């Protein structure tokens, strides 16, 4: 009786397995027939009713049936997996002869391009590029630059203070002080320091609370104003071209004395006067001057033995002049219509 039940179970299971159409159905059949609570186990629970002579015979038959079903299940599983893979490959077949989807290429941001151009010009003149922290101590940002706590020039740079003694730097000049300290009184010093700076300005066409500066510093024996003017003229002609006029006029900065500003003839009107240059024919490009003796002394240099000059420029301003951009916000709004114009820069 039990032999017939086992043979019938085998035939039923084989038919069901061969008819399975997917792996999930096959998994359910494996549990149904060979699981711990499956039908084969249920049949074998009646082994206790068999005689001692029948038990080994039926046990061997049951074991043979289990092995047969496991083999059939494995073969069917392999066949279904292969069929599923072939169907997926057929469904996901790619026609390599079709034209590809074009992807737009990025380019260097115009501000980055200007920084690289300025760096290359000054590196060619023997300058090194230095960097410093954007979160700075008040001493480096102001006091070491000849602006003590009560100095009125601090009001010209409304600052983002974190504590009473720590702020977001308002200029890259602190890098000059840190460089001088690192040199420990040794000369020559020839460096530029590009970087982001922060001031509490209302954002408009010509102002931003965050912008980029590049400052330069030279300290050595016998450094003169004429060397400063020659350096800046060489830079300006390489940056803007030989067909422009340049002039220097007196100015004031607390960390240089004497101080001056450098102007260039307007690129729009050629010096005739227009809206861009406010009818003056000139556009300011940078500020400069001879390093104040107090700055040298605070940085560990003997001001009677050494002299130096410093200069600083706004990268955004240089880029606006060079490329004819009339709104500083174009640099930060990520408008692709603007940025695509600089793919060849």
From TrEMBL:
Species: Polycladomyces abyssicola
EC numbers on record: 6.1.1.20
InterPro entries: aa-tRNA-synth_II, aa-tRNA-synth_II/BPL/LPL, Phe-tRNA-synth_IIc_asu, Phe-tRNA_ligase_II_N, Phe_tRNA_ligase_alpha1_bac, Phenylalanyl-tRNA_Synthase, tRNA-bd_arm
Subunit and interaction comment: Tetramer of two alpha and two beta subunits.
Name of the molecule in the record: Phenylalanine--tRNA ligase alpha subunit
GO CC term, one of those recorded: cytoplasm
Family: Belongs to the class-II aminoacyl-tRNA synthetase family. Phe-tRNA synthetase alpha subunit type 1 subfamily.
Cofactor: Mg(2+)
Residue numbers binding Mg(2+): 257
Reaction equations catalysed: tRNA(Phe) + L-phenylalanine + ATP = L-phenylalanyl-tRNA(Phe) + AMP + diphosphate + H(+)
Keywords for this protein: Aminoacyl-tRNA synthetase, ATP-binding, Coiled coil, Cytoplasm, Ligase, Magnesium, Metal-binding, Nucleotide-binding, Protein biosynthesis
BP terms from Gene Ontology: phenylalanyl-tRNA aminoacylation
